Amino acid sequence: MTFDAILFDCDGVLVDSEPITNGVLCQMLGEAGWDLSPAECLRLFIGRTVRSEAARIEAETGRPFTDAWLAEFYERRNVRLRAELVAIPNAPEAVRAVHARLGGRIACASGADRQKVEMQLEQVGLAPLFAGRVFSGHEMPATKPAPDVYLAAAAALGIPPARCLVVEDTVTGVTAGVAAGATVVGYSPSSIGHGSPEDLRAAGAVRIIADMAELPALLG
What we know:
The chain is an alpha/beta fold. Helices cover 44% and strands 11% of the residues.
C-alpha cells in the first residue's frame, strides 16, 4: 500500500481514553437511574458521542438530557483524563515515524470535541506533530459514521481521500473512513475498548493491526 497522508482517529488509536471516559459516563448514568455494567456501557457508547445518544439516555433515565448534565460529564471526564491518560502503546513512536516519512502529512480526525482531543494530544506529547491539523466531528455538519471529518482533514492536507490511509479502532470510525473514500486500517489489540477484528473488517477495514508499531511498515 502506498499513501500520501495518514489520518488518525484519536480515542483508542492514539490515546487510551475509552476506559476512562466510559467509566465516568457509566457512573453518571447510574446516578441518573440507568444502571449499566462498564462492559455494557462501552458496548453501547463506543465510537458514539454522548449527545448523539441523548434520546436513549432520556428514555432510560426518565430525566431530560440537559446542557448542564453534559457539561458536568465533560468536567468530570476531563479531571480523570488529566490524572490518568496515557498514550496507546507504541503510538507516539509510530506517529513520529510516519510524520517524518510523509513530510508532516498527517492529521487527527476525531468524533470527540476539540477541547478534549487537543488536551489529550498535549498530555501524551503528540500535539506538536498535529499542530493545525486537528479536526473534530463536533464542528462538522455530521459526525462519524458520516465521512465529514475525514473529508475535511484530507482537504486541509490537499490530498485526495483515495490517497489517504485512515487508522480507526471502532466500527463507527471505519464506516466514516470508508464513506470518505479512504483506505482504512483497523487497530484491534486484545485489550477492551476496541472493535473486534471481525467487526472492523465487516465495516470495511482492509487490514487489522494489533500493535501500532506495525503501522509505519504499511506505507509501502
